[in-house]
Fold this sequence. Notes:
- By secondary structure, this protein is an all-alpha fold.
- The chain folds into 2 domains: about 5-245, Up-down Bundle (Rhopdopsin 7-helix transmembrane proteins), CATH 1.20.1070; about 255-400, no CATH class.
- The chain contains 16 helices and no strands.
- Helix 1 runs antiparallel to helix 2, helix 10 (about 255-265) packs antiparallel against helix 13 (about 330-345) and helix 13 packs across helix 15 (about 365-375).
- The longest helix is centred in the middle third of the chain and has 44 residues, at about 210-255.
- The protein is elongated and about 95 Å long.
Amino acid sequence: MTTVYFYLLVGVLSVAFALRAPALVRHWRDPLVRSVSLLLPLGAAVFFFAAPPTISQVNAFTGIPNFSVPLVYGIVTAASAALINLTITWRGGPRDRRRTATRWCVGVYGALIATQFTLFALGDASEERLRDFDTYYATTPYVREMVVLCVLAYGLANLVLARLCWRWSREVPGLLRTGLLLIVTGSALSLGYVACKLTAIGARWAGHDWDGVSTTVAPTVSSLASLLQCVGLALPSASQCVMSLWRRWSRYRRLRPLWLTMRAVTPYELVPIPWGSSLGKRQLRRTCDIRDGLRLIAPRLDHHAQELDHHAQEGGRADALPATLHPDAARHVALVVAAFDTLHGTGADAGECSLESMLSGDDELLVRLSDALRVLAVPDHTGSPDSGRSSLLERTSDRV
């Protein structure tokens, strides 16, 4: 595996963590969010410190040959602990029980990390090895125990994660299931990495040289496994983010017909929205403009709602439009009234489609009103752009 590939994986994992960072900030108290988010920077740290140039720099900086080895193994062990904590959180159960299990996991794997550094200090690894440390020192006392201990701890964590995610994947649909299956595949490949490492080390113990399995095959399998696991972890959150953004944009776009009509009704000039405004600010501004216009024509819509219940007991000023409206506003008011008619004609509850509901913050109802307005204002089969609207105005002119 080339050096560029190490740093490429660091970039991919960093981007995956950046995608989850907003959720981590908003839901820091959620143990599941913390567990998933912690894995990504740990994975990036593993590949960053495992890259041969970084290994040389760390060894030179500390002045200790091969100091990068226990450092990388310590980060790998911490990532394994994070995997087990993730399985504990996903499994659910009583909070006290999960908290106790998490503490045990942190304690045991913390002791493993301390043991690895202790074994490295006791062993003799004075010759720097950038790529074949595991097999070169496979017969060195204390150092071989350190290597085997780390590999087994990593394999156990992936075995538990694969088993849990496989069970869960049979209970959930959609992209969440896809993400879980990617994690299962990555965990299975991680077990292949463990097998490669132990095979090469065992071959050294038997007097054979199978170093290529450890130095070439194992890193390639590990990189692919980590990539699949991180994509699987990020896929559900990324898809939810994209779908949420699409729904917000769709709602903003669907409000446009009603917003344009309200602009014609509103007697004052609307302040333009700044070019760099976010979608949330744009949607808030659009709904506020719409509600301002609806308040101006509230007498007409209120009168219409009363007609649906008890044949309009009042007339006169209640039927009149405000004098401050634009001279051509009656045509646009007719469109809104007809769209209001359409909502009530769809069988929806009158209370749900009332003017009070529209003005109280129900954005979904505004979207439905805008959709009805858009359908009513389209050209008819004659192809004339104004014919559909003209026929609509004829039907509603007796009300405005």
